[in-house]
């Protein structure tokens, strides 16, 4: 447990990869395993970021982690991370010269326009300049630390704050965890100064801050040694792996799977890379996701929201078509709340909760805006809700085979399906057979038997409690008034045989209510409730002009 009086501080790690270690392997391990594992412990690590030297000196790389309470770093919740390294981590870190330091935070000041890196986009954060100053004291002067501190706080930091581009200055000292009697590290006074990429370092105000009578006195009398390094920020961690750029070039032999099998990275010798992992919502739901496609960090991202009872693999065939025709897209898929076990006590889902789940996923992946969101059935309604609640996170959407309001009849039908599912022996299997026969176009059932059976299996594998409580998002929801104010560009798509044609009529009926009333409706022939699964090529024909 944290101490009663938390001591905030920093984990400060310098790294120098040794000759023979691929930098792609080094970065992929750090970005997709090491860093996110720590950011998944928000009670310990508030932020994590990586820097590259700009002064030509070694070590080349630096990582800093803001720590809520330094005492926690002595406890198993942290120490077990190092004691239980994966084989991949042990292999990689064995080829890296690593030095790890603990520092206690003493003071901090920041500019009025300072924004923490974790709250910035990658483009905004990257390139931030870090100046690191390391001072050891003259031990013959008993008041050396207090005099250095007084100069820092009363003159130097104030003068630095006037340097163009200055963002933040923090003062640290060697952590009490490492000082006698707990350790044998020497006392070091550390200051970290952050500046915008365009700044006044080396200019008149910066030079003036380092050339005053007071500074001359302090350094001549109280300082034994001073070190200075400069770095540029190049990566900010979220709590989820996202680095396809360094994964893609690796050989297939460098594929990785975590011990809990929740995270896996699959290189394709430069052709394709796939990341599979999860994020955790504020109510402790784990949402699995899959990231693939264009490995460029700034690639436009298209996300997919599944129908109830299906998994992210319902999009497999369509995604293959999309990747072939639009290799510029990064592709994000995830399993909707209810696919797997859900946190207890069980709480019925709502459309707003489902939209919030996606926003959490994007936050942890540091995706500031989706190029497009495509959703079907409950995922289609989630897509509309997301566009309403988070318009700044979305450029355009495709909502398929869905409604914008529930009804008494539909609610009654869901309650009947819950009764079927709750049979302890074959409930989900029975529900799967009924559901798929209702979903699919007769042509699909008769001519695509393997695809039909695969969907039955997918539905049957859904978590029973997850289904029971997540389907309630479709009970009584009503977006009819809200969609009148929808400003995000959209497209509606529906299978011609969904509900024997009834859903196409319903979507065409509410289409004029949405936004300016000019959203297009595309009808996919020979398809039922899941046209992107039943006839992926025809679905692509319907959406390619919009995507």
From TrEMBL:
Under the heading InterPro entries, the entry gives: AB_hydrolase_1 (IPR000073), AB_hydrolase_fold (IPR029058)
Give all residue intervals belonging to the AB hydrolase-1 domain.
Answer: 314-539
Q: Record's Gene3D superfamilies?
A: alpha/beta hydrolase
The superkingdom listed in its UniProt entry is Eukaryota
Q: Which SUPFAM superfamilies does the protein's record reference?
A: alpha/beta-Hydrolases
Check the record and name the Pfam families matching this protein: Abhydrolase_6 (PF12697)
Q: Which family does the record assign? A: Belongs to the AB hydrolase superfamily.
Q: What is this protein called?
A: AB hydrolase-1 domain-containing protein
Q: Which organism is it from?
A: Sporothrix stenoceras
């Amino acid at each position: 447990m944290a101490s009663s009086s938390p001591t905030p501080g920093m984990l400060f790690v310098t790294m120098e990869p040794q000759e023979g270690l691929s930098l792609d392997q080094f970065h992929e391990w750090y970005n997709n395993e090491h860093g996110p594992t720590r950011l998944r412990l928000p009670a310990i690590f508030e932020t994590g970021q990586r820097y590259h030297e700009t002064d030509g000196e070694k070590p080349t790389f630096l990582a800093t982690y803001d720590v809520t309470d330094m005492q926690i770093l002595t406890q198993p919740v942290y120490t077990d991370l190092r004691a239980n390294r994966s084989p991949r981590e042990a292999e990689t870190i064995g080829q890296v010269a690593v030095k790890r330091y603990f520092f206690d935070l003493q003071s901090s000041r920041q500019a009025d326009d300072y924004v923490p890196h974790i709250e910035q986009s990658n483009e905004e954060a990257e390139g931030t300049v870090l100046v690191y100053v390391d001072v050891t004291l003259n031990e013959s002067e008993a008041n050396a630390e207090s005099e250095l501190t007084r100069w820092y706080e009363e003159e130097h930091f104030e003068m630095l704050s006037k340097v163009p581009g200055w963002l933040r200055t923090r003062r640290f000292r060697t952590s009490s965890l490492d000082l006698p009697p707990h350790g044998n590290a020497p006392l070091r006074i550390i200051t970290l100064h952050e500046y915008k990429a365009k700044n006044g370092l080396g200019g008149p105000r910066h030079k003036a801050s380092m050339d005053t009578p007071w500074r001359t006195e302090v350094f001549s009398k109280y300082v034994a040694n001073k070190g200075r390094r400069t770095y540029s920020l190049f990566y900010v961690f979220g709590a989820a792996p996202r680095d396809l750029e360094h994964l893609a070039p690796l050989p297939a032999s460098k594929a990785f799977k975590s011990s809990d099998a929740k995270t896996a990275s699959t290189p394709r010798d430069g052709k394709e890379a796939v990341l599979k992992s999860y994020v955790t919502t504020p109510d402790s739901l784990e949402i699995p996701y899959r990231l693939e496609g264009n490995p460029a960090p700034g690639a436009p991202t298209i996300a997919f929201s599944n129908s109830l009872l299906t998994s992210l693999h319902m999009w497999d065939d369509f995604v293959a078509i999309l990747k072939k025709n639009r290799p510029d897209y990064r592709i994000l898929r995830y399993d909707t709340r209810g696919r797997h076990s859900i946190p207890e006590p069980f709480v019925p889902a709502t459309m707003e909760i489902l939209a919030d789940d996606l926003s959490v996923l994007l936050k942890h992946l540091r995706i500031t805006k989706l190029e497009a969101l495509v959703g079907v059935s409950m995922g289609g309604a989630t897509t509309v809700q997301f566009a309403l609640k988070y318009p700044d996170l979305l450029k355009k959407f495709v909502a398929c085979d869905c409604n914008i309001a529930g009804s008494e009849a539909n609610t009654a039908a869901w309650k009947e399906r819950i009764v079927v599912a709750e049979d302890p022996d074959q409930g989900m299997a029975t529900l799967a057979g009924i559901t798929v026969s209702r979903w699919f176009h007769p042509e699909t059932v008769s001519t695509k038997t393997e695809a039909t059976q695969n969907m039955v299996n997918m539905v049957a594998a859904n978590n029973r409690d997850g289904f029971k409580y997540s389907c309630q998002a479709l009970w009584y929801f009503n977006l009819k008034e809200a969609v009148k104010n929808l400003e995000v560009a959209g497209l509606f798509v529906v299978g011609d045989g969904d509900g024997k044609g009834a859903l196409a009529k319903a979507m065409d009926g509410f289409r004029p209510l949405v936004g300016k009333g000019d959203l297009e409706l595309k009808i996919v022939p020979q398809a039922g409730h899941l046209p992107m699964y039943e006839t992926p090529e025809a679905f692509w024909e319907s959406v390619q002009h919009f995507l």
